[in-house]
Amino acid sequence: MLSGAAFIQIGTVQYALSEHDCLLIPPYIRHFGYRDSPNGTVYYWMHFFPNGTVTTSYTVNLAGNENEVTLPQQFIPKNFERVALLIRQLLDSANDKSSSQLATNYFVSSILIEVSRQFIATIHPAPKSSSRFELIKNWIRIHSHENLTVAQIAAEFQMTPVYLTRLFKLYEGVTTIHFINSIKINQAQELLLTTDKSVKTVSLELGFRNEKYFLRVFKNMTSLTPTQFRNSYAKTYLNNIEVDPTIPKP
User: Fold this and answer.
1) Are 2 and 76 a contacting pair, CB within 8 Å?
2) Architecture of domain 131-232 in CATH?
3) To 5 degrees, how large is the angle CA 74–CA 80–CA 84?
4) By percentage, how much of the chain surpasses pLDDT 70?
5) How far apart are alpha carbons 29 and 182 in whole angstroms?
6) Is a pLDDT exceeding 50 seen at residue 115?
7) Interval 45-78: pLDDT, tens
8) pTM, full prediction
9) Helices assigned H by DSSP within 23-175
10) Which helix (H) or strand (E) is 214 found in, with range?
11) Which of helix, strand or coil describes residue 198?
């Protein structure tokens, strides 16, 4: 779910889905919408057909085969942007006539693996951060369009830059600068895909001190330049009757 709400009944169970909800619908079970969705509702919908054995359980055994993917019935990914980026790659591949079916299958597998990874991380979570640290991260997100420095953030929360970076290493596994840049690059990706703003304009809006530094950070985090990233996903169409593929019987 990207926005709005969807109301889906699977068998006799009803699910009310909102932003960032992921729902898994098992095969051969009747499902339908039991209420109308409001205007502005947007979601991704995909069909996939596993080649191997599928096991359904009401308990999660995470000590099993590391090559297996564990998917919950309903789940909200902690990092939805990672999942959304993979889905955009899938759409681009599926709607590119020159792309191999193998590539499309690869992206579907990547999406399922990423959802599974984030779900398992909720079962074995990292050390729980304090409410104050969550406040720091939210403050960075709110001010991500500014030219933020570690010293500025540390001063805002009355701590030393060294201690602030120690908190990020403990709870996020990255430095403060890396976290700041990851927030900025996520927003840059969205602007590149949804607007026609120039790369220079995007870098200025996100508070990078110069375009060359923005290009270097973007390339380090995505392995692509901003222009390559934008051109790589030019075919991520929204679903409509012209591009909705015929679904084969499993």
Assistant:
1) no
2) Orthogonal Bundle (1.10)
3) 105
4) 88
5) 40
6) yes
7) 988 888 878 888 776 665 556 678 888 899 999 8
8) 0.57
9) 80-94, 101-123, 131-142, 150-156, 161-171
10) helix 211-222
11) coil
Distances (CA, A) of 198 to 13, 92, 149, 189: 47, 21, 25, 12
Show the tokens assigned to 115.
């959802």
What residue type is 212 in one-letter code? Answer: K
Q: What is the end-to-end Cα distance of the chain in Å, rounded?
A: 25
Residues of the chain with CATH 1.10.10.60: 131-232
Q: What is the DSSP letter of 68?
A: -
What is the residue type of 234?
A
What does the DSSP assignment read for 11-61?
A: TTEEEEE-TT-EE---TT--EEESSPPPTT-B--------SS-----SS--
- pLDDT of res. 240: 47
In 3-state terms, what secondary structure has residue 9? strand
- Round to whole Å and give the CA distance between 167 and 163: 6
